[in-house]
Amino acid sequence: MSGDWRWNDAYINKTAPDTNYGANSGLNLDARTSIEGRTNKSIIIQAPIDVSDLPTTTLVGAELVLWRDVTCPGCVPQNFDQLVNIREVLTDVVESAVTWNSWDVPGAYGEQDVGPVVDVATIATGPIYSGGETFNVLEIMRRIIAEGIDDLRVKLEPDCAPNNAGNCFTFSNWWSTEAQNIRPYVVLSFYGNVTPTATPTFTPSPTMVATPTPTSTATATPTATAGASTATPTPTPTATPTPVPALVISEIIGNPDTDWNGDGEVNERDRGVEVCNWTAATIDFQDDYWLRFNGLASDPFNGIVQAGQCFVVWYDLSGSQFRPMATGGTVDLVGPTDLLQTFTYPPLQPGQCVGRWPDGSNSWVFLNRCSPGRSNGYFLVNPTPTATP
What we know:
The chain is 4% helix and 32% strand. By secondary structure, the protein is mainly beta. It has 2 domains: 8-190, Jelly Rolls; 201-389, Sandwich (Immunoglobulin-like). The strands form 5 sheets. Strands 1, 2, 3, 5, 6, 8 and 9 form a 7-stranded antiparallel sheet that branches.
């Protein structure tokens, strides 16, 4: 997808109705019975989308993805489900000016402000977690495509159901585009013979680029090829996106609890990054590409990767400083002349990975079991995996 991905996002606060929160790194959703109407803080987002640049095939999915900030003050386990109404915003959003009172009806409730509720998401009761949450904006996307509108404008409006005593309290905080962590993004899925298009990933990066065999004597092993797994992660019939035509980072193994590299030991060398060549061409790297973790230098790569093949780049094979960590961090891919992409991933639990799903798409999910050598969705659709990959 082409275009300048400058998002406008902010939250509006009923208790500070003339305050603008457009420059905040966090986006608050807050609903509680102590505030009249129970809606205290809503999120307003405007994402530029060039509809003329989209495939002409059928749009079958559109998800706005926000990632939780679990470090914020007030981020405590929820005792009530937080219900989030999803509405279309009908006017332009000025990030530096939007407030609770800057609408036809304060709080953005007027017919001139927002459309009807198109879906309701539930942020479940229980401990907060560091992860992504999807909000279904398919109906809004279909309308803006039909009318040629070049902006996806969404209001996330929280609510909660009171208990028998008439009380409820919910609060959640999410990273904004001003944050240096995982920023909001949109995933679009299309059905047809045209490659689907997704919006930016966690950080503003144009592409992700692969790296095969390192310069050490160890040799990377090709992994799953495009289309290797025909299963889909949901039981309902959905379109399987064609891989985005690029060299991409596909999966990050930052907190291993399994002998993923097959050397007979579970240790630091099971950390790594899977990279895939989803282009139609064979790529010869010739020591012109390398990966970095948190900006530290690593060894360049050489070797050839065929179209549709993936490789795993393991820690220590590409230098002692290329060591993806459980605490999260930034993976850079550097090409012959420039930085090709920066990708920041969140903290990982033992055995947890983060990877693209569906394979080759721009949608990223937590994988509770890593999948080097397989489709990223293999263990999502095979609940009883084998002991080793």
